[in-house]
Amino acid sequence: MGASQKNLVLIEETKLRQMMEELIKNENGADIGLKIRPKIVALLKNTISEGQKQAELILQQNGKGRQCARRLSLLVDTVITTLYNFVVERIYPLPNPSSGERIALIAVGGYGRGTLAPHSDIDLHFLLPWKQTPWGEQVMEYILYMLWDVGLKVGHATRNIEDSIRMAQEDMTVRTALLEARFLIGNRGIFDELMRRFEDEVVKGTSPAFIRAKLLERDQRHKKAGETRYLVEPNVKESKGGQRDLQTLLWIAKYHYRITSTDKLVTLGVLSKAELRIFKKADDFLWAVRCHMHFLTGKAQERLSFDIQRDIAHRLGYTAHPGMEDVERFMKHYFLVAKQVGDLTRIVSAALEEEYAKPVPGLNRVFLTFSRRKKKIVDYPGFVIDTKRINIDDDDVFVRDPVNLIRLFYLSDTHGLECHPHAVQEASRSLKLITPKVREDKEANRLFIAILTSPRNPSLILRRMNESGVLGKFIPDFGKIVAMMQFNMYHHYTVDEHLLRCIACLSQIDHGEVYQDHPLASSIVPTFKKERTILFVALFLHDIAKGRPEDHSIAGAKIARKLCPRFGLSRADTELVAWLIKEHLTMSMVAQSRDLNDRKTIEDFANVVQTTDRLKLLLVLTICDIKGVGPGVWNGWKGQLLRTLYHETELVLTGGFSQVPRTDRINASKERLHDALENWDEAEKQHYIGLQYPNYWLTVSPEDQVRQANFIRDADKRKTPLATMSELHRFDGVTELTILAPDHPRVLSIVTGACAAAGGNIVDAQIFTTTDGRALDIILISREFELDDDETRRANRVGKMIEDALKGTIRLPEVIAQRAKPRRAAKAFDVAPNVEINNTLSDKFSVIEIEGLDRPGLLFEITKTLSDLSLDIASAHITTFGEKVIDNFYVNDLFRHKIINPQKQAAIRRKLLALIAAEPKENMKRT
């Protein structure tokens, strides 16, 4: 603590003490402590409140996070020390204390470091020389209850010196707390005795055990918080690259090197002066973010969630740039800082390893028992295998030949070994050697393509290159998207992390590891020869133009045309990579938002793809792109849609689609069903076949036709006008609900509302009518339960809700309001509403595409509005991208015609836009 800060504390303590004396001067009697307590609590509350307001104001003015944290710690110091003095002098005075009636009040943990966030826990240690005394118990109890009443979250321990030493020897958490112990007030002598014994009896000679424990603790914390530091809603305190990682480094440095200041790490040669500046800037930035989070939310908010990210960005002064929002610029800075924390971890790792000459890769394993052995790598001078890792033989390896910066990671891949921390550290310090000449070097690019297309684990090596900074320096366009966040609820990771995860997905398919999940892609990839390189390159580059004003697919294709010749690809292969990048979203959008039973959909997509080779490459790229977005984004239903689109398009491209006329296909479908209904008499068969219109025979699979025929016959026998049936599709990750009801325009609206009320998330809907005036609707909802029995019970509940809604025994808006849960954090986003009416996507229907911000009950409201507009919905295709919805409805007017009239189209747009832009109804949920 600086002299000026100490003086500030003394001034505040004196002022606060005077105010407390004013409150007590007219009080007397035996229960004075009880009488004065409410007044003291109010005074301390006000002191803390005013102090925090001042700290927040100064933080907003100067942006210095660590200074704010120290100011808040000093504020708490003032409250606690003043309260302690007041209690021992005025409430429980002890004129002649014995040697046993001594207390040292110690700050431990984060508070012991002298830094606090506004709503952090306060960790106190009441240190006694021997055992507890009645006087000491009264003092501690009074202080603690006062602090709790004030609203501070105080954790405490009461121990004597002997117990403190014993517990520190046995418990690493207690040891870490005492490592940061800071004397507050009381008897200084017993505190000094504790610290002396702690050094001699606990710390001395135990560095390896402490480091091992701290890093195991860190690994477990990372696993719990999320293995990557690039989660788009990071925990500033606990996530990888957050404050706790910096604190872990401080603990290790303080324990091992016995230092009290990070500046000493420069003196010891662990960090350079530049790296120390990075350390301090990272620490200051993380403190600024965390303090702002606490001030903004009024609580100990540690997760940087979507709903506060924009506010924090504004508090820190970030503004929007072309192609990037203010919040995205802030989050990119955050992730770059998190990456720097990882770099510092690696540097300390290298320093420890040099000192002990034993491996500590990534600080995950500490001080193994075998000694260092070095073995030169044949044909690669300057590189050695050092304790089972690739290392450099001397620090001039990269200066002599900068291509060695790529060769380091190539050797890591080909030998299946990690890179030594020292080699990675020197690579990071040598990034300036990667000049335009090195980027154009044929050998450097050959090595890079060998890494990217490695049959082993390319994503692992690329991630190591990225962590070191080499990847972004070698490919500057990639460097621009490092740590770049996309501010939406759909993408779980930063852009660079997404690309590396996509490569990992492709590698899994390449190895045949996910055949059960991706049978088609897994059968296609082994047939690739030169296409394999094209696919890896296209996948690596497909999002490389994110964050630019121009559409990233178009801009990405331009970048590919620049980079691919450098990578050694031919002109034809370069154009194929550029085409894949330009169209990398097309297959996913068509599969999820178009009617795949509509011939025009398939023909239009085939015109885009043009060749089966392109179709195969685009399918695999699309699968990897979706899977790389984040957990839970891919599901079996998306896989089924992509396979259906692939097979139907393949037929068109190979000339098989149009070989059989429409009438012949309808008749063939009828004959198959006729033959499959073995237990039906002829009259029943003919009657049922006459119930279905031509579109039914062209769009429903033979297996489903049989199931639905038996379902309708059973309902007719029971004379039930309203019936539901469920079917589980485990592989597709969906549950099918079939609804039979008297036909009327609002059937789909009621069904979607009932699904919303029952918690069913609709992903697709097919609507058919029968010639006798009934509706046969097939609804697909996302599967919720792993066990079939649980999912069946849930499907039955949804079916019962649908039946009740169609019977009119429940009022859907009220039920939805009661049962639906609002989507988390959606209010933080702004999606411009848009409605398009397209008459070129289908020969029979108008396609209405609705785009907007998701909200509770939206699909119910949309289908109700379409019914109010006298539109007949033939199929609905529901797509949700985080907070954004893109819903497509294939519709006719009441005369089964397309919506051609401009005035009618304008009226539809006005109504739907007004609906989407309207404020959400409280406590409703979209299906």
Automatic annotation (TrEMBL):
Its EC number is 2.7.7.59, 3.1.4.-. Residues 736-818, 847-926 form the ACT domain. InterPro entries: ACT-like_dom_sf (IPR045865), ACT_dom (IPR002912), HD/PDEase_dom (IPR003607), HD_domain (IPR006674), NT_sf (IPR043519), PII_UdlTrfase/GS_AdlTrfase (IPR013546), Polymerase_NTP_transf_dom (IPR002934), UTase/UR (IPR010043). Its cofactor is Mg(2+). Residues 495-618 form the HD domain. GO terms for biological process: regulation of nitrogen utilization. GO terms for molecular function: [protein-PII] uridylyltransferase activity; phosphoric diester hydrolase activity. Keywords: Hydrolase, Magnesium, Multifunctional enzyme, Nucleotidyltransferase, Repeat, Transferase. It catalyses: [protein-PII]-L-tyrosine + UTP = [protein-PII]-uridylyl-L-tyrosine + diphosphate; [protein-PII]-uridylyl-L-tyrosine + H2O = [protein-PII]-L-tyrosine + UMP + H(+). Uridylyltransferase (UTase) activity is inhibited by glutamine, while glutamine activates uridylyl-removing (UR) activity. Residues 1-377 are annotated as: Uridylyltransferase. Has four distinct domains: an N-terminal nucleotidyltransferase (NT) domain responsible for UTase activity, a central HD domain that encodes UR activity, and two C-terminal ACT domains that seem to have a role in glutamine sensing. Belongs to the GlnD family. Modifies, by uridylylation and deuridylylation, the PII regulatory proteins (GlnB and homologs), in response to the nitrogen status of the cell that GlnD senses through the glutamine level. Under low glutamine levels, catalyzes the conversion of the PII proteins and UTP to PII-UMP and PPi, while under higher glutamine levels, GlnD hydrolyzes PII-UMP to PII and UMP (deuridylylation). Thus, controls uridylylation state and activity of the PII proteins, and plays an important role in the regulation of nitrogen metabolism. This is Bifunctional uridylyltransferase/uridylyl-removing enzyme. It comes from Bartonella choladocola.
